[in-house]
Specification:
It is built from 25 helices and eight strands. The protein is α+β, with helices and mostly antiparallel strands and 580 residues long.
Length: 580
Amino acid sequence: MGFLAPNTADIDVRQWRTRPYHQRIRPLAQHWAMHGFGTPGVVHLLYLVKITAYALGGIAVVSATPGVGGIADFGSWWTEPIVYQKLVVWTLLYEVLGLGCGSGPLSSHFLPPVGAFLHWLRPSTVRLPPWPTRIPFTSGTRRTSADVALYAAVLGAAVWLLFTPGDAEAGGVLAPWRVAVLAALLALLGLRDKTVFLAARAEHYGLTLLVFLFPVADQTAALKLVMLALWWGAASSKLNRHFPFVVAVMISNSPLRPAWFKRRLYRNYPDDLRPSALASAAAHGGTFIEYVVPLVLVLSDGGPVTTIALTVMVVFHLHIMSTFPMGVPLEWNVFFIYSALVLFGHDAAVGAFALHSTLLAAVLALSLVVVPVLGHVRPDLVSFLPSMRYYAGNWATSLWCFRKGTEHRLNEHIVKASALPVDQLTRLYGPEAAELVLHQGLAWRAMHSHGRALVGLLPRAVDDVESYDVREGEMVAGAVLGWNFGDGHLHDEQLLAAVQQRCGFAPGDLRVVLLESQPTHRQRQHYRIVDAATGQIEEGYVDVREMVVRQPWLDDETPAIPVEPVGPSRPATEVAAAHE
């Protein structure tokens, strides 16, 4: 499995290990700017194989549907409404199994390359209910046999739909009551465990299931509005100072971009890794495309204008896929391309606002407008996924600091489907290389604006960072919860309380730095520093303007980031309850 090793031959691992923490981040950030993660082309090839499996699997499943036709007749049936429905269910199933977003080495899953279904089919693993104090029968963080059965029922309902023929009384599409079974099971499962609900990409595919409950005459228009909202929501979330950092770092991970081009993404590589004018232009250009071209698609009804707009959006999503962004939302982009071609190409004549159902309009308004707006104004209340704050750099994040020698308690006291990332990597490459790979993830985070704030807050969390093993919160969540995909709410105080309940860390043994997303209307981000045993040590705000002018590393010329501390300390139980 050594072929998964990152391409860091230019770094002397033993010499690198002797450096102070902030000096270990600098060479890895500089390395990422040119090479990204993984042996060039090899890790990326693994993901291309996965995308191909997803695409061919979807075609095979749909072609097995009675009345649709075989693979040889693909060109005659790929635009049929029931085919679109089947591919939505197939994609949801693929994601809720953990085979899509959040899988593989770019999500800290090395051996095995997925957690997800291995984790969620195992009793006694950790689950995180979204509202345990408000929704009856959802409290607790231990997965029961009933939770396992409910997850298995979701998988079974999806498979059942995949091999169900169209219903003549429903207009040749899936019978609404059959779709309702899957939607209801997914909702119930989400109330017991928000991790699985998010993994299913319910803000997209779950909402689409609800659209399938309405008459077929309304479905195409509604699906067009869903697509428009996802594009516009993503574009709106990128109207910030963070996104140019994202573009520079994301393109740096692409094996298809030459080194000279990657250098131009930064102001003065290797000493100044702030995004250049080119990176900013690329970021704003992409945002412009996500606003304007979908609007053209919605307002056009076919012909050359539609064809040109579709071509732009297909190239746009292919570009995203070619960068292999961390978290690898690749299947999602494939589905976007398919949806654009079907809904705005084949069904161009159907108006996006030709809805007849008032109830459906209300469901769409709540899901596509109210929830995202709330998520932008109060990001602490809503996951970045239903908020449609996608790959925009404005994410809740965390760093988990384990006093050296204590991290192993997660293995001793927590039921998991796979070992911690450090143990997976140690088995593959040895302890020194394992730490290098983990720090490469920390360097990736530090290259983003919010990551620079985390690096600057670290000295406020621990007296001596050299006495701690610093881990990405994403990596902790991926191991303890079975899945991770950029949502810092999955590794905040709620997860920390669940970990502490099982592991019983002593005061000072585990400190966590938590940084919330930036609200749209404010230029600051809320942070908390929490001790697993004693509770909140400090909270306050960091200024976004301070974050975007700094380098990914600390040195003598850039001391700890200025903060605005607020509020008294609180015990751990009170802090955890406040975030439930």
